[in-house]
């Protein structure tokens, strides 16, 4: 099974900051990676799929990059509504798996 | 717009079977090509992928849960189901249904299932 390791697990940032979250896969997964945002009490919401393709309706300040084993999610200018927990998911092979999450909090 | 909604008991006794249903609206479950999935989230923790069922009835379960999981689909009711047997407190979680394949655009709102006597 493929393990995903996210870092950091927690980060404190201010509105307007540029934020980068990393997701590392235990083996190569090509570009079969998605990123989700989850707010308390809500289901995850898809932000990016195929490592770098922005889901329809998602603000352009979100971007994804990477392939193989290392991936990043970048928020170019953090907005108040972006304070949430972010997860990566690999879709290269089953069982699918998620990273442990990165909680983004207000500094 | 596709919508998914989980339903089922919020409290299950230890050693019993957890049974949840996901009702699909805004589209036919048998329209083909979709993997109807279950994901769970332990309180305050990350996401765990449970498995999927194809509209033909083919399934794939996470090996970590495979011995206890059964999924089924009822095309007449446009819903699919999850059964998890021999539950323990470690199965207490929010259970989500979602539509694949690929990344999950559509999710249910989630339902909390507590395993306790």
List the helices and strands and how they pair.
The complex is a heterodimer of chains A (107) and B (117).
Chain A: E1 4-7, E2 10-13, E3 19-25, E4 33-38, E5 45-49, E6 53-54, E7 62-67, E8 70-75, E9 85-90, E10 97-98, E11 102-106
Parallel strand pairs in A: 2-11
Antiparallel strand pairs in A: 1-3, 3-8, 4-5, 4-9, 5-6, 7-8, 9-10, 9-11
Chain B: E1 3-7, E2 11-12, E3 18-25, E4 35-41, E5 47-54, E6 59-61, E7 69-74, E8 79-84, E9 93-100, E10 106-107, E11 111-115
Parallel strand pairs in B: 2-11
Antiparallel strand pairs in B: 1-3, 3-8, 4-5, 4-9, 5-6, 7-8, 9-10, 9-11
Quick synopsis:
The complex is a heterodimer of chains A (about 110) and B (about 120). Chain A is built from no helices and eleven strands.
| Element string of chain B (H = helix, E = strand) | EEEEEEEEEEE
Q: How many β strands of chain A by DSSP?
A: 11
Oligomer: heterodimer
Helix content of chain A: under 10%
Report the radius of gyration of chain B as a whole number of Å: 13 Å
Compute the CA-based radius of gyration of chain A: 13 Å
Largest sheet of chain A: 7 strands, mixed
Query: Can you count the helices of chain B?
Result: 0
Describe the largest sheet of chain B. Answer: 7 strands, mixed
What is the terminal separation of chain A in angstroms? Answer: 36 Å
Q: How many DSSP E strands of chain B?
A: 11
**What is the approximate shape of chain A?**
globular
Give the DSSP E fraction of chain B (strand runs of 2 or more residues).
over 45%
Low-confidence stretches of chain A: none
Shape of chain B: globular
- What is the structural class of chain A? mainly beta
């Amino acid at each position: 099974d493929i393990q995903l390791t996210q870092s950091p697990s927690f980060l404190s940032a201010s509105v307007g900051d540029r934020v980068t979250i990393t997701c590392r896969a235990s083996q190569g997964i090509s570009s079969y990676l998605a990123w989700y945002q989850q707010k308390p009490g809500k289901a995850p919401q898809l932000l990016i799929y195929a490592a770098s393709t922005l889901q329809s309706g998602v603000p352009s300040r979100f971007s994804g990059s990477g392939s193989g084993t290392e991936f990043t999610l970048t928020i170019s200018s953090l907005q108040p509504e972006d304070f949430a927990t972010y997860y990566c998911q690999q879709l290269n092979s089953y069982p699918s798996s998620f990273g442990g999450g990165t909680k983004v909090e207000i500094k | 717009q596709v919508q998914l909604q989980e339903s089922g008991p919020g409290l299950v006794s230890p050693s019993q079977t957890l049974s949840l249903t996901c009702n699909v609206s805004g589209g036919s479950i048998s329209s083909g090509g979709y993997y109807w999935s279950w994901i769970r989230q332990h309180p305050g923790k990350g996401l765990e992928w449970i498995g999927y069922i194809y509209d033909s009835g083919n399934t794939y379960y996470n090996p970590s849960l495979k011995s206890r999981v059964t999924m089924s689909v009822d095309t007449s009711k446009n819903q699919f189901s999850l059964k998890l047997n021999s539950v323990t407190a470690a199965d207490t979680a929010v259970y989500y249904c979602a539509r694949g394949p690929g990344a999950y655009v559509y999710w249910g709102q989630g339902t909390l299932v507590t395993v306790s006597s």
